[in-house]
Amino acid sequence: MTHWFHRNPLKATAPVSFNYYGVASSPAAAKICNDLRSSRTRLLELFVDSTCNSEMMKNATDSYFSLLQGFINSLDESTQESKLRYIQNFKWTDTLQGHVPSAQQDAVFELISMGFNVALWYTKYASRLAGKENITEDEAKEVHRSLKTAAGIFKHLKENQIPKLITPAEKGRDLEARLIDAYIIQCQAEAQEVTIARAIELKHNSGLIAALAYETSNFYQRADHTLSSLEPMYTAKWRKYLHLKMCFYTAYAYCYHGQTLLASDKCGEAIRSLQESEKFYTKAEALCKEYGETKGPGTTAKPSGHLFFRKLGSLVKNTLEKCQRENGFMPSPNQKKK
């Protein structure tokens, strides 16, 4: 099955022992440290486990983050931070600059970085489900839910956790606002793709589908614009993907808008709309090739090999031909006078 979604790599991290000799001296403290180590290891293993589902991921994240809270917040229910917050150094790579790790001696940095990976996992899980043959309605809902969950996690990290860091986010790295915004918008766009596919399957009103496709195209355009001021070496491949999806859904919007115009006997306008659709579809095809040839981080999607992509090409061609035939049958103004 060809891939429909571009996915950047997960963040990698250095092992953490959570051994605090002389600090965690009681049996209860030692057990918490052991549980922290084992729950962290378990969570990291699940990120690359192809059998992992959303319930397994939720249980693993709840287990680790609940223990990690003891290193962030005071246990006496006050608003003060934990005295253990800065006891451990954590190292994480970035999704785009993976070969250059970042390190901070701060449990909040660990919470954010691990949370970032959890959000990425939900996008990858959604992609895995969406890549199945004959996806069911329940699976489509799970894809939509997973993408919404990922967007929510990214948004929470940006608004509530990253501002707590003593060391500010470095420009061009994962925790910088522009990068997180791009991930959030992409999740929103892909969630809406599920809605569009479902609307087409249920043969909803063509005007509604056109509006959804146009909005989705705008999402992808915004995500691309968000990355435009970052280093091209790291973002070029990702941006090609966003650009081709923008063109693809613009083609969809014009195609279904053309169908709406045709149904209203506005054949001339429908033809112009379908010609625009054809133009953007051709551009999307060219960008698929450019995207495949562009070097950069992440798995390479193959939208042009996907049935959903190929169907649009046939739909545009057939609808345009229908518009042209019907336009030829319509009487001219002079004939109407006779």
UniProtKB/TrEMBL annotation:
SMART domains: BRO1. Residues 1-338 form the BRO1 domain. Pfam families: BRO1. Belongs to the BROX family. PANTHER family: BRO1 DOMAIN-CONTAINING PROTEIN BROX (PTHR23032:SF13). This is BRO1 domain-containing protein BROX. The gene is BROX.
